[in-house]
């Protein structure tokens, strides 16, 4: 095995030590990908049948308490950013109640064919009544009769698939009624991620992944192993924290190339904060 290939394959187990290892990041930069990719590539999310763009437009950079860097742009500012992405072939809107981005996405949806975009959102509800209320409120806020993807947001417990069975049942019922097209979770612990991989209920998972383990559930090698299990089971896997919540802002090319090289991500989400940033991301993916 050539030295570069050894570095690429072995370094994902090194975790945060990567950050100081320029040789490893350079190895990623030098190693060619097996194919060319585009942010606007049409991908299918696992076995859900949902077709969308490879790059999702994130709206939740440092998102909490109904605020994020993207929502700080204002309804028109973020809506214009989403529409700029749409005009560049991006079809995947990544929203959440906790980001406060529903009004911004709703404004963008007024200007595009609804069936041409994928709207993903997330609920923090942990009881059935709250989950039902969220589904009604989310659709009102988004101005849409249905949600393409609804995730249980930020699950952390190893037993979450038992503990929150009531919420899961609400989302299953919503899918049967056509209120949502698919359901799943975003995980914020390796125990929760492993539980998601084993649960037939999880159809799509939003997983934290980057080459240095920044803001992830475990070291990259461990996480990738679980994501491979998900992929083998036909689940959709969407990557997040691709740039390590800004840690890799100055090594974006390597982070993007790493995500594209894994072979386990159907799509990934990155939150741009300006049209220039968004168009730069699109160029970087094409050049990877």
UniProtKB/TrEMBL annotation:
<protein>
    <submittedName>
        <fullName>Oxidoreductase, aldo/keto reductase family</fullName>
    </submittedName>
</protein>
<dbReference type="InterPro" id="IPR023210">
    <property type="entry name" value="NADP_OxRdtase_dom"/>
</dbReference>
<dbReference type="GO" id="GO:0016491">
    <property type="term" value="F:oxidoreductase activity"/>
</dbReference>
<dbReference type="Pfam" id="PF00248">
    <property type="entry name" value="Aldo_ket_red"/>
</dbReference>
<dbReference type="InterPro" id="IPR020471">
    <property type="entry name" value="AKR"/>
</dbReference>
<feature type="domain" description="NADP-dependent oxidoreductase">
    <location>
        <begin position="55"/>
        <end position="255"/>
    </location>
</feature>
<dbReference type="InterPro" id="IPR053135">
    <property type="entry name" value="AKR2_Oxidoreductase"/>
</dbReference>
<dbReference type="InterPro" id="IPR036812">
    <property type="entry name" value="NAD(P)_OxRdtase_dom_sf"/>
</dbReference>
């Amino acid at each position: 095995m050539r030295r570069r290939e050894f570095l690429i394959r072995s370094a994902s187990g090194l975790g945060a030590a990567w950050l100081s290892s320029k040789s490893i990041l350079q190895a990623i930069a030098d190693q060619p990908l097996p194919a060319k990719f585009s942010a606007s590539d049409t991908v299918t999310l696992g076995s859900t049948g949902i077709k969308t763009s490879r790059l999702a437009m994130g709206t939740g950079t440092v998102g909490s308490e109904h605020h994020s860097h993207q929502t700080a742009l204002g309804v028109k500012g973020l809506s214009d950013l989403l529409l700029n992405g749409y005009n560049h072939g991006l079809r995947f809107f990544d929203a959440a109640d906790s980001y406060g981005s529903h009004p911004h996405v709703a404004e963008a949806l007024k200007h595009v064919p609804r069936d041409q975009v994928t709207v993903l959102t997330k609920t923090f509800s942990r009881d059935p009544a709250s989950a039902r209320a969220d589904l009604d409120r989310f659709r009102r806020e988004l101005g849409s009769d249905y949600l393409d993807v609804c995730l249980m947001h930020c699950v952390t417990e190893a037993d979450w698939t038992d503990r929150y069975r009531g919420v899961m049942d609400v989302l299953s019922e919503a899918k049967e009624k056509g209120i949502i097209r698919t359901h799943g979770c975003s995980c914020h612990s390796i125990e929760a991620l492993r539980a998601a991989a084993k649960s037939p209920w999880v159809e799509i998972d939003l997983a934290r992944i980057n080459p240095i383990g920044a803001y992830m559930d475990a070291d990259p090698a461990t996480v990738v192993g679980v994501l491979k299990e998900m992929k083998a089971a036909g689940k959709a896997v969407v990557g997040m924290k691709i740039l390590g919540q800004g840690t890799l802002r100055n090594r974006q090319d390597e982070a993007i190339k790493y995500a594209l090289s894994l072979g386990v991500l159907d799509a990934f989400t990155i939150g741009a904060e300006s049209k220039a940033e968004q168009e730069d991301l699109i160029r970087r993916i094409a050049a990877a």
